[in-house]
Amino acid sequence: MSAWLDNRIPPPLVGLCCALGMYVTAAASEHTELAFTPNYWLALPLLMIALACMFLSIREFARHRTTVNPLNPGSASKLVSSGIFAYSRNPMYLALLLILASLGLAWGSWLGVLWLLLCMLYLHCFQIYPEERAMLELFGESYADYCRRVRRWC
User: Among 48, 56, 93, 131, fewest CB within 10 Å belongs to which?
Assistant: First the structure.
């Protein structure tokens, strides 16, 4: 069953909207700060890990010469299961969530977790599930085997 929102909104735009929501929420609420914030010393390494995941993901797609476009998963020419994709089926989305987590830490708002969860829910329902259906249709049993071997997130 296909939903209207399936693969319609680019994940970076979803992440940007959630980051904006996190910022507005943190700025508007006086009593939401965690005791140790702003803790850039925790946020910075998390951000570096996220950027490394993003870089490694894009590099692996380029190495296999297949599309990185999340709006048209049916146009993938190869199943990428090496590199960082041997550990996570969705390292780019994981990186996006880690970026949001690092921003939440830096801005010091526990309510930011709600935006992080909203982004994760959106990605899970309207991006990952439709991509998985398309990949299963394109690559059949080899994709099903990949799903059995590698976790969806991490």
Answer: 48
Query: Which residue matches tokens 């680019």?
Result: 10
d(CA 81, CA 77): 13
**Confidence category of residue 32, pLDDT binned at 50, 70, 90:** low
Residues near 79 by beta carbon (within 8 Å), at least 6 away in sequence: 135, 138, 139, 142, 143, 146
Q: Domain limits at 110?
A: 20-28+35-67+77-149
Give how many domains the chain has, as a whole number.
Answer: 1
Arithmetic mean of pLDDT over the chain: 90
In the predicted structure, residue 101 carries a pLDDT above the cut 90: yes
